[in-house]
């Protein structure tokens, strides 16, 4: 089976998507069973390819259910300067590290 691309998946109907998903899940189970019994793997990258295909189909099904593509919902570009990722510990309300002692070690008084 060839690599599934999103543009090809978007063209499929609901029934075809479900059939393709079941087909991929069965193929993944067979590949994993072959590995479990110690059979030689014809293509080691195939499992990764199958898993990605399953994820792409499930993503498309979710997008159709929601009515809007998930990619449009995501923010594009770097995080804004006021986002929690760019603020200091003090700005997030966490105390700054005091001293150079490792975590869990108490000072002698």
Features:
109 residues; mainly alpha; Helix Hairpins; 4 helices
Would you identify the CATH architecture of the domain at 6-71?
Orthogonal Bundle
Average per-residue pLDDT, rounded, comes to 79
CATH topology type of the domain at 6-71: Helix Hairpins
CATH uppermost class of the domain at 6-71? Mainly Alpha
Strand content: under 5%
* Whole-angstrom Rg: 24 Å
Task: Calculate the terminal CA-CA distance, rounded to whole Å.
Answer: 69 Å
Number of strands: 0
Helical content (DSSP H or I, runs of 4+): 40-55%
Uncertain segments are: none
Would you write up a description of this structure?
This protein is mostly helical and 109 residues long. The chain has a domain at 6-71: Helix Hairpins. Helix content is 50%, strand content 0%. It contains four helices and no strands. The chain has helices spanning 6-11, 14-37, 46-66, 70-73. Helix 2 (14-37) packs antiparallel against helix 3. It is flat. It starts with 5 loop residues before the first helix and ends in a 36-residue tail after the last helix.
Topology:
Elements lengths: L5 H6 L2 H24 L8 H21 L3 H4 L36
Helix pairs in contact: 2-3
Please provide a brief summary of the model.
This protein is mainly α and 109 residues long. The protein is 50% helix and 0% strand. The chain has a domain at 6-71: Helix Hairpins (Orthogonal Bundle), CATH 1.10.287.
